[in-house]
Write a structure and sequence with these properties.
The structure holds 2 protein chains of 2 kinds. By secondary structure, chain A is mainly alpha-helical. Chain A has 17 helices and no strands. Chain B contains 3 helices and 10 strands. In chain B, α1 runs antiparallel to α2. The two termini of chain B are about 40 Å apart. The chains are: A mainly alpha, B alpha+beta. At the A-B interface, α3, α9, α10, α11 and α12 of A face α1, α2, β7, β8 and β9 of B.
Chain lengths: ~525, ~230
């Protein structure tokens, strides 16, 4: 218990961060269900207008600041040292502080529910001047700004530790171009965090000063600062899940990841481009060069497409095992594609004039974040659960979980494209009966119930797994590629008793094909040599 | 910038390019995944390929993607120059020089629109249930300048696929042409602006040019009398 709360080992910190994210995920999920219940019919039944504004603000900001970004970084912090053959991550106390800053930041944000005026209700991007005191009075908004800033600082700390580990703590023989694909996705994610997240800290700091009476902000300056964070941030919520899907595709099809060098190049190009795409959120302002940002945003389809090809080509001519993890890989590939293709659509200004702030955009980013990234996360969870705990998750419950989530996600988010194209704006507590939007909204609301059921089922499955024996061997699927599969499940605190020589980005695959065991037998070493 | 443009058909044309391409890509990927499930499922005797790279395929694929991106951008830029883009940098408050086109100034505020016509004519609503009515001539270019008195708002006219932000301290300028016979009932503020955001609608009344001129003259006359 004390280790779980205060431990600084990278695996302990990562699991703690993931558990914190899971708790906030449950909270944000309840808020989403309340919203969908309110929107199932025209009229106000469940909440008031201000109450609805609190729901969508807290749902969106919780999911981004406290769930998807933290869980993405937790996956990086857990896996990167294991994939690199590292005994300890860099900056363990720094990562420790990061995980608790996320928890404290989240509690500060949610403490707004205890104030008379309620929590933040200016939307997750809290535009200036809406987030100033006249339009958003009360301490709940201040708490929201402070909490989101703390959580973001926490994310920066964790990312800095992972980045330092990637650059400084690789095992002997592990050159940059022998790092497994997940570690590469972690590297680019952490680069984005370290370079773009400070912009949010600045924007929210200025907003807080503005609320104290300083007259320093301008609406366009704020939007530029916010989206300079906000746009790279969406790829921090994407890359690590692509990495998990890539690992699952490779391990479960028994193939080396296909097109490794092209994938790495595509990731780096994507990262560079994604730092200059932010103002496509501002096409309708008339204060940014729309053509430039349409160019950078649309160009992203080239590296993204290469990443897709490489993942699918890894499955092609493999010996693909269709367990739950692979089902989630398929779910990710198809559903994220809908998110990605609609992303290319909204990158074109003339199309975005219609889509921006409509349900088209709501559908688009839920296909990327929920039907995409969360499915990628589940692919990774089913794949790595035996590594994390030594136990397997139930395949039967897993299939049901996948079915419920797939039905739920598509029933919820597909109708939103049609609603948006028909003129339904986002962030509306109510819509007129004459609009003819009842049927599609009701379908979306029913879909959210399926998502809730699927998520509950996953919790049951997790609980049941702890009743089972620890049976998972080091190489839990018998076809591991990189070093994390060469140590016990779960790994010991020092990660490795002995290290296999690193001969490529899939060292275990190399050993298997030479007929060698995954890891050399541990040889007794003189005291202290291990550290 | 051409004056008085058809934003709706620019949107429809691009839509007819983007959505079919997206559909084809989706179907291809889905078919490939079905083929994977069909042919490459792990079973006794199935051995995974050891090949890890195919540079020619990868280069061809990258070139294919770059070609698609180029076509999409080229058509997007075309559509942009054919429509009126938002412009908050131009000296936008000035009426258009060398043109006797109608200019309407819009002042957005929570949760109301004030529409200022030449001759001091003002159309507005009550900020709650009764929205302002924008009266415009059909099939005629109208020049707009728009700003906000408080927070950021956005004017969205779904029937025209048009959306422009109204921001305090900035004047956004754009041109629109309203076709008669479209359903304008969903026109509204689309940038979240606080509690009554959902009620910040705009009624649009498109009249034949002659009827519009008569209406405006009548309103100007009444304005002078008061």
């Amino acid at each position: 218990m004390i280790t779980a709360l205060l431990g600084t080992d990278h695996k302990v910190v990562a699991i703690r961060t993931a558990v914190i994210a899971a708790l906030f995920f449950a909270g944000a999920g309840v808020l989403a269900l309340l919203m969908r219940t309110e929107l199932a019919q025209p009229g106000l039944q469940v909440t008031s207008r201000a109450g609805y504004d609190e729901l969508f603000t807290m749902h969106g900001s919780t999911m981004i600041f406290l769930v998807v970004i933290p869980v993405a970084l937790a996956a990086c912090l857990y896996l990167v040292p294991l994939q690199l053959g590292t005994v300890r991550a860099c900056g363990p106390r720094c990562a420790f502080a990061g995980s608790w800053l996320i928890a404290i930041g989240g509690l500060v944000m949610w403490a707004g529910w205890l104030t008379r005026e309620g929590p933040g209700q200016a939307g997750w991007y809290a535009y200036d001047p809406l987030a100033r005191t006249p339009a958003s009075p009360g301490p709940g908004m201040d708490l929201w700004i402070c909490g989101a800033t703390l959580a973001t600082v926490g994310s920066i700390l964790i990312a800095a530790c992972v980045l330092a580990t990637l650059l400084r703590r690789r095992a002997p023989g592990m050159t940059m171009l022998r790092m497994p694909v997940f570690s590469w996705t972690a590297l680019v994610s952490c680069l984005l965090v370290v370079f773009s997240f400070p912009s949010l800290v600045v924007a929210f700091g200025l907003l807080l000063a503005e609320r104290q009476g300083a007259h320093i902000l301008d609406p366009i300056a704020y939007q530029n600062l916010f989206w300079f964070y906000g746009h790279p941030a969406v790829y921090v919520m994407f890359f690590p899940f692509v990495g998990l899907v890539a690992e699952a595709a490779s391990v479960l099809s028994g193939r080396r990841f296909f097109g490794y060098r092209a994938f790495v190049l595509a990731l780096l190009a994507f990262t560079a481009l994604s730092m200059s795409a932010w103002a496509h959120h501002m096409f309708t302002t008339g204060a940014v060069p729309n053509q430039l940002f349409a160019l950078t945003s649309t160009a992203l389809l080239v590296p993204a497409g290469i990443e897709y090809l490489d993942t699918i080509a890894t499955l092609w001519q493999g010996a693909v095992r269709f367990n739950t993890a692979m089902l989630f890989v398929f779910g990710f590939l198809l559903q994220f594609l809908i998110g990605g293709l609609s992303g290319i659509f909204v990158a074109s200004p003339v199309l975005d004039y219609q889509a921006q702030d409509s349900y088209i955009v709501v559908a688009h980013f839920h296909y990327t974040l929920f039907a995409g990234s969360m499915f990628g996360l589940f692919a990774g969870l089913y794949l790595y659960w035996p590594k994390l705990t030594g136990r397997y998750l139930s395949e039967r419950l897993g299939r049901l979980h996948f079915a419920l989530l797939t039905i739920g996600a598509n029933l919820t988010f597909l109708p939103m494209f049609a609603l948006g194209n028909d003129g339904m704006a986002r962030r509306l507590a109510d819509y007129p009966r004459s609009s003819g939007w009842e049927g599609l909204n009701l379908a979306a609301s029913i879909g959210s119930g399926f998502i809730a059921l699927g998520t509950l089922l996953f919790l049951v499955s997790v609980a049941l797994s702890f009743l089972r024996e620890r049976t998972a061997p080091a190489d839990a699927w018998g076809s591991g590629m990189s070093l994390e599969w060469a140590t016990s499940s779960p790994p010991p605190p020092h990660n490795f008793d002995a290290l296999a020589p690193v001969t490529s980005y899939a060292p275990l695959y190399d050993r298997r094909h030479r007929g060698e065991p995954p890891a050399p037998a541990a040889t007794p070493q003189p005291d202290g040599a291990r550290a | 910038m051409p004056f008085g443009v058809d934003t709706r058909s620019a949107y429809d044309d691009l839509f007819a390019l983007y959505v079919p391409i997206a559909g084809v890509v989706f179907v291809i990927v889905a078919l490939v995944l079905v083929a994977v499930a069909w042919r490459f499922r792990a079973r006794a005797g199935r051995v995974a390929s050891q090949r890890a790279t195919a540079p020619r395929l990868e280069i061809a694929y990258a070139i294919g993607l770059a070609v698609v991106a180029t076509v999409l951008l080229w058509r997007s830029f075309d559509a942009m120059s054919a429509t009126s883009n938002p412009d908050a940098t131009r000296a936008a408050a000035e009426p258009r020089s060398g043109s006797d086109a109608l200019t309407i100034s819009i002042r957005a505020s929570r949760w109301n629109w004030r529409l200022l016509y030449p001759g001091g004519v003002v159309q507005t609503g009550d900020g709650h249930a009764r929205p302002a009515t924008l009266v415009v001539p059909a099939a005629t270019p109208v020049h707009f300048t728009m700003t906000s008195l408080d927070v950021v708002h956005a004017l969205w006219i779904p029937a025209l696929a048009a959306k422009y932000d109204a921001m305090p301290g900035y004047v956004n300028a754009f041109d629109l042409r309203f076709a008669a016979g479209l359903d304008y009932s969903t026109a509204r503020c689309s940038e979240f602006c606080g509690v009554y955001h959902d009620q910040m609608r705009l009624r649009i009344d498109v009249r034949a040019p002659r009827d519009f001129s008569a209406w405006l003259r009548d309103r100007q006359r009444r304005q002078r009398r008061t």
